[in-house]
From TrEMBL:
Homology family: Belongs to the peptidase M1 family.
The protein's name: Aminopeptidase N
Keywords, comma-separated and alphabetical: Aminopeptidase, Hydrolase, Metal-binding, Metalloprotease, Protease, Zinc
Peptidase M1 alanyl aminopeptidase C-terminal domain mapped to chain residues: 562-892
Residue ranges of domain Peptidase M1 alanyl aminopeptidase Ig-like fold in the record: 456-558
Pfam families per the UniProt record, alphabetical: DUF3458, DUF3458_C, Peptidase_M1, Peptidase_M1_N
Length: 892
């Protein structure tokens, strides 16, 4: 626990390390209570460090370590030969070449931070990104120090029969006293954050897999005993990822083996350690009995993401942590493209794109408008763990996608090829990636740099004018970007704006700009603050379809009429903008209804919107997956983001009213589509089946939003007869969210009975129990008292990140009614939970702390309670840097 005044680290202060490490030799004598680490580093002076004639020092970092011995070129050093200042160890040294030997002791069994070397369920695991390696041994723990690693692991053979590390297994054997050893060698240079070891009692599914160059690689998925029946989908996803990277990018697996290890205690989703990926069990374990469609999709995406890091992150890594999006934004883009390609259909690609846009709107845009707003490439941080954000990941992926939009698919591929050719086994910057794209495409992308350096979501205001006599259509685009912390004035961005025009019959009109025929979709490049584009040969008044495929992460403002939105919602050939038109129709009504609810006026929903939803619901020419997305209302978070003063209860009342009204007025159509969307036979997580289940279960949710006896009976029957977890969870959710209904006798009893039976059946499946907690935490009938009661359940613990997130974080982040209780009890609970978690695991605590980012947007009565809770946390004397930075920025 760090209690000193946090130090702000600035990108502008970057200096190269005074010494580089060529080779690392590590020896581990593994014991939960006393692990001894022997570390031999081969270093050389870095002449590029620019220290001139000044005396040089070797700088190493270490935390929570007992230093036993240091030897420099064979000479033992005493306490006067080095200096320790907090986490920094300095050794004066003028030698050109150095062999440094360090022996340390750590205590993995007490490491509840899950950073560094720790014990989970009696097994050893590591997590070294971003700065966990310094909890294992003293080291220049920074990403621009890359070296080869040789690792010797020694442990009790009975207790820890499996010994794994990065790279290739060189040798293994038995030792005296029931111990054994394994020697691993990673032939590729890597930074210390990619180091990993596992010493555990595990079993594995393994296969040999043919690679493009004729080699066969050993693939292994390691899990705890009893979970081997849940590994096949992860293995198949890994094989698909390897093949896709070969075929799409000509990037091959460079090791003899590739391993995935699943652990139940893990702060993140997964970690791309070279050749030894360590995963949260959530993204490995799956079969139809315990995993939903969303789980299967998540596993494929995350397995792909971590494997793709082998090149975009491992072979080419970050110079410093400010460049985090260099690897994460790029790799998110790659996993998005992989997931879309695995579906293989245009409609399937559209649905994945809509999911991405929804994530941006629900999570990233609010972050851009809050106290933690930061550029894709931050300028400063106190705690780097706080910058594993939707801005760095998802907005970073949008920045990469814009390169492809501007350069075309072939031009983007040339840029990727040049990037790898220039920078393989190097630690580089976002500017290096941009330079490769510019040089390969022959484009000046200097203005595009602003996407990396400027925070906030740009706003594009569109205006149009049709000249019937000249048959021209003028589109004027004006861009701006609101001020963010530390950044007031913003310069114009380079924004690709994809545009189409629809005729009165809903068909695309041909586009001609400056005498050039552009087909039916034109990518306009908005580079000025105010820019106009004049299309010629437009023979009728069109309806504009602006920002097709969400071609840039911006907020588009345009005064669409209801008639225009209905036309787009019914006919736009661009599925993302077709979905967007429905979202705009819904949002306008939700905002008005929230205003009415706050004022105590009666609520009413017009026929225009309901008829548009009905038409979408019954349109059998559209894929069920797209219809499900189009029929989903904007979330309460997205509605709140559109309001100057947020009233959570009014928002909830408005959205629940719309859901109930749709459920009541479209009851027969919803039931008909429910019946038509069944997926008989054996469960399959293919895209078509997932889409049909999604539409069916949305229909059930709408029916139970305005429940009658038939709707509740339908949900109960689906719960009882479900042959897969997707349908069972959907039915349980419908019952739980209908429990407050007064229209159905014993609605609460039905929900309580289903919850009890669900837990009884799945209490041995940790990930399913997480769903059980989350289901109750998000229910609008759940208040603070109910959450506190659930925290006393024998299955609950704050020490496991998944379990803490399933209940505490879900309540604070996904239950606006309970969390924003008028008496402030939700905020008091948040403060108590952040403080408790911070003592155990600062990373999990800081993510929970983000729930209060935008407290100043709420009504004054709520603000008062929220500020008090924030001050309570900020006033703690023993607070981690992780949490201190978040609450400090919220209060600033």
């Amino acid at each position: 626990m760090r209690t000193d005044t946090p130090q702000t680290i600035y990108r502008k202060d970057y200096t190269a390390p005074s010494y580089l490490v060529d080779a690392v030799e590590l020896g581990f004598d593994l014991d939960p209570a006393r692990t001894v680490v022997a570390n031999r580093l081969t270093l050389r002076r870095n002449d590029a460090a620019g220290t001139g004639g000044a005396r040089r020092e070797i700088e190493l970092y270490g935390e929570e370590l007992q230093l036993v011995a240091i030897r420099l070129n064979g000479k033992a050093l005493g306490a006067r030969d080095y200096a320790i200042d907090g986490a920094l160890l300095r050794i004066p040294c003028d030698a050109q070449d150095v062999v440094l030997e360090i022996e340390t002791i750590c205590v993995p069994e007490t490491n509840t931070t899950l950073s560094g070397l720790y014990v989970s369920n009696g097994n050893f695991y590591t997590q070294c990104e971003a700065e966990g390696f310094r909890r294992i041994t003293y080291f220049p723990d920074r990403p621009d120090v890359m070296a080869t690693y040789t690792v010797m692991l020694r442990a009790d053979k009975r207790q820890f029969p499996v010994l794994l590390s990065n790279g290739n297994l060189i040798e293994e054997g038995d030792l005296p006293d029931g111990r054994h050893y394994a020697l691993w060698e990673d032939p590729f240079k890597k930074p210390s954050y990619l180091f990993a070891l596992v010493a555990a009692s595990l079993v594995c599914q393994e296969e040999t897999f043919p690679l493009q160059d004729g080699r066969r690689a050993l693939l292994q998925v390691w899990v705890e005993e009893g979970n081997l029946d849940k590994t096949d989908y992860a293995m198949q996803s890994l094989k698909r990822s390897i093949r896709w990277d070969e075929e799409r990018w000509n990037l091959e697996l460079d090791l003899d083996r590739f391993m995935i290890v699943a652990v139940g205690d893990f702060n993140m989703g997964a970690m791309e350690n070279k050749g030894l990926n360590i995963f949260n069990t959530k993204y490995v374990l799956a079969n139809p009995r315990v995993a939903t469609d969303v789980d299967f999709q998540g596993i494929e995406a995350v397995v792909g993401h971590e494997y793709f890091h082998n090149w975009t992150g491992n072979r080419v890594t970050c110079r410093d942590w400010f460049q985090l999006s260099l690897k994460e934004g790029l790799t998110v883009f790659r996993d998005q493209e992989f997931s879309a390609d695995m579906i293989g259909t245009a409609s399937g690609r559209a649905v994945t794109r809509i999911d991405q846009v929804r994530t941006l709107r629900q999570a990233q845009f609010p972050e851009d408008a809050g106290p933690m707003a930061h550029p894709v490439r931050p300028d400063s941080f106190v705690e780097i763990n706080n910058f594993y954000t939707v801005t760095v990941y998802e907005k970073g992926a949008e920045v990469v996608r814009m390169y492809q939009t501007l350069l075309g698919r072939d031009g983007f591929r040339k840029g990727m090829d040049l990037y790898f050719a220039r920078h393989d086994e190097q630690a580089v910057t976002c500017d290096d990636f941009r330079a490769a794209m510019a040089d390969a495409g022959g484009r000046d992308l200097s203005q595009f740099e602003r996407w990396y350096s400027q925070a906030g979501t740009p706003v594009v205001q569109a205006e149009t004018h049709y000249d019937a006599e000249r048959q021209t259509y003028t589109l004027r685009l004006v861009q701006s970007c609101p001020a963010t912390p530390g950044q007031a004035g913003k310069l114009p961005f380079h924004i690709p704006v994809a545009v189409g025009l629809l005729g009165a019959d809903g068909r695309d009109l041909p586009l001609t700009l400056d005498g050039v025929d552009l087909g039916t979709t034109a990518v306009l490049e908005l580079v000025e603050a105010d820019q106009s584009f004049v299309f010629g040969g437009v023979r009728e008044q069109p309806t504009p379809s602006i920002l097709r495929d969400f071609s840039a992460p911006v907020i588009l403002k345009y005064g669409y009429s209801d008639a225009e939105l209905v036309l787009l919602f019914s006919h736009d050939s661009d599925p993302v903008n077709r979905w967007e038109a429905g979202q705009r129709l819904a949002m306008g009504r939700l905002l008005k209804l929230a205003e009415d609810a706050a004022a105590g006026r009666s609520l009413d929903l017009d026929d225009v919107f309901v008829d548009a939803m009905r038409k979408m619901l019954v349109d059998a020419s559209l894929d069920p997956a797209f219809r499900e997305q189009a029929l989903l209302l904007p979330s309460e978070t997205m509605i709140a983001d559109q309001m100057d003063v947020v009233d959570p209860m009014a928002i909830h009342m408005a959205r629940q009213f719309v859901r109930a009204d749709i459920g009541a007025r479209l009851r027969s159509e919803l039931r008909a589509q429910y019946d038509a969307s069944q997926t008989p036979g054996e469960y399959s997580p293919d895209a078509e089946s997932i889409g049909r289940r999604a539409l069916k279960n949305l229909c059930l949710a709408y029916l139970c939003a305005a429940p009658d006896e038939a709707a509740i009976a339908l949900a109960r029957r689906q719960f009882d007869e479900a042959g897969n977890m997707t349908d069972r969870v959907a039915a349980l959710g419908a019952l739980v969210h209908a429990r407050a209904s007064s229209a159905v006798a014993d609605a609460a009893a039905h929900a309580d009975d289903a919850l009890r039976r669900f837990y009884d059946e799945f209490q041995g499946e940790a990930l399913v129990v997480d769903k059980w907690f989350a289901m109750q935490a998000s229910a609008p009938t759940t208040d603070v008292a109910a959450v506190r009661a659930l925290m006393t359940h024998p299955a609950f613990t704050l020490r496991n990140p998944n379990r803490a997130r399933s209940l505490v974080s879900t309540f604070c982040g996904a239950n606006p009614v309970g969390f924003h209780a008028p008496d402030g009890s939700g905020y008091a609970f948040w403060a108590e939970s952040v403080i408790a978690l911070d003592a155990l695991n600062p990373q999990v605590a800081s993510r929970l702390a983000r729930a209060m980012d935008r407290w100043r947007r709420y009504a004054p009565a709520l603000q008062k309670h929220m500020k008090k809770a924030l001050q309570q946390v900020a006033g703690r004397a023993t607070l981690s840097n992780d949490v201190r930075e978040v609450v400090g920025k919220a209060l600033a």
